[in-house]
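This part of the workshop introduces the protein records we will be handling. Getting from the letters to the C-alpha cells is the skill we practise here. An example says more than a description, so a record of this kind follows:
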Amino acid sequence: MWLLDRFLKKLVRQGQLIIVESNGQRHSYGVSEGEAPVTVRFHDPEAPHFVASHPYMGSGEAYMDGRMTVDDEDVMGLVRLILKNTIRDNANMLEGGIIPRTLQHVTNRFQRFNWEKRSKQNVAHHYDLDDRLYNLFLDKDRQYSCGYFTDPNNNLDQAQLDKKIHIASKLALESGQRILDIGCGWGGMALFLSQIADVEVLGVTLSEEQLKVARKRAKEAGVEDRVKFELIDYREVKGRFDRIVSVGMFEHVGPPYYKSFFNHCRDLLTEDGVMLLHTIGRLGLPGATDPWTNKYIFPGGYCPALSEIVSASEHSGLILCDVENLRLHYMYTLNHWYENVLAARADIIKLYDIRFYRMWTFYLAGASAAFQYGQMCNYQIQYTRKRDSLPITRDYMFERETQLRAKS
C-alpha cells in the first residue's frame, strides 16, 4: 500500500478519496469540499501495488476483475475525482507509474499502424459486439459519436438529430449529388442525408454487423436504390463524389496514414467537392492513447491534435475552410450513454458478464471525464478542393441549419 499511498498523497488536492484496504485499514486523501467522498475498496492485499505500478492499466483491470470496487458502483465519481486532479502540474502521474514512458510511447506508436487487415480486426473488436448491446445505450438512430447539444438539457435523441443537421448544413447539399460516407456505422447519417436532399449516398464500413443493419434499414426505408452500403476499406473506394462526410472514423486511421487518407479523399472529390471530417481530437500537443483503452476498447485508436490533422491535410492540397471545436458536447453525450448503461446493468450482464459490464462503465466514465477535465475534444473540419466552392461567408450554414430544424 505504501506506493499507492505515496502516489495519492501527491495527487489528490480536490475532493476526497477514501481507500479501504483488504484488511479493513482506511486511508483518506484530499478534502470533501462539500461533496460526498469517493470510497474505493481493495479486496486483495496486492491490488493497491498493482494499481500504483501502472495506474491506467492497473485501475481498469483491477476494477474489471473485482479486485477493486467503488461504493455505490460510482466509477464515474472516482474517475472524475482523479482526472480533475491531474490537470494540475502533476498531470503526468497517471502516464505509467513505474513503467518507463518511453517504452509506452514506442508501443503506442507501433499500435497506430492500421494496415488494411489490422484495421478490420480492430473494428471488429469494438463494433462487431452483440448487436443488442448498442440498442441498450445509444439513441434510436444508433449514432455512436458526439451529439450536438443546442441545449445541455436536451435528450440524447434530440442531440443526435441536431448533430446530423449541424453536419448536413456544412455539406451544402444540392440535388443530384453523390455522397460518400466513410465509416458509416449503422447507416443513420447516410439515411438522414438521403431524406433531406435528393442525393445518392455510398456508405462504407469494415464492420460486418454494422453493414447488415445499415442495409436492412435502407431496404425498410425503400431507398436501397440510392443509399448503398459496402464492406470496404476507405483506401479501396473508387469513383468521384460531390461530398464526403466522415463521422467518428478518423480516430481509427492512425497517424502513419493521415497523409494517404487526405490524398485519397482529395482524389475522390469532384473539383467543386466539399468534405466534412468529424473526429475526436486532442487539445494542445500530440499525445498517446492510454494502454487500457488501447487494449480493451479501441485497439489501434488514436485521437489526434489539431496540428496533426492540419499538417497532414496540407500535403494533399485540400483547402481547410472551417474548423469548429465541440468542446463539451461529447461529455454530455457520454453522460447519457453512461446513465443508459447503468440502467441496463442486468441486461448487459446477461449478454456478457459482470466483467464486461464493469469494463464498459469504466470506459464511458473515463471518456466523459477526459472531455470534462482532460485533453479530449471534438473537431469538425471542412475542406474543399477549390476556394470558391462554397459561399464566401458562413451564413449559409446557419440558414440551412435553421431550415432543417424547422422541418424536423
